[in-house]
Amino acid sequence: MRSLKSHTVDETYEPITEAQRFQWFFSNTLGPLHLLVGGTFSAAVGTALDRPKEYGPGWGGFGDRFGMRLTGISTGNVIEATFGAAWGEDPRYFRVPDRSFGARMGNVVKQTFLARRRDGHFAPAYARYMAVPSNNFMSNLWRADSEANDEDAALRTLEGFGGRMASNAWEEFWPSISSRLFHHGH
Prior knowledge:
Blueprint: E1 7-8, H1 18-30, H2 32-49, H3 58-87, E2 94-95, H4 101-113, E3 114-116, E4 122-124, H5 126-138, H6 150-182
């Protein structure tokens, strides 16, 4: 979950406030979905594959991988939140729950690469374009030697945009799925 409140494209747009931007940063860095699903999944896969080898297997290796992911995510989110504030970009995801499945998937992809501006229109998410590669290349400074290179940083950058797309899909579809599964309001 990217934010505590779900937003839709069709509602009257209110530009993001400083408090909402901090909430976005906090939720996307330390929120349950990002910590438990993103961090745990990423660390578990890395531990299962023993990548990087320097961290080793077991709980110690898992903890190192989890911590490394958290440093990357937090660095990227600080960059996106800071530059996005200066440039008037809103990093939040805006749902389109009343549209077709195809339109909803299009919205997921669109908002991976576009962000709302203060006037409500969508434009390239320049702060995100800067944040995702920057945190991945910058983290080469403190990563294990076997993955502290340009090729791995480029791969992590692609994974970062893929992760953003997956998070958008979750935020787009989970409220609809959960309301059917748990019959909220019915």
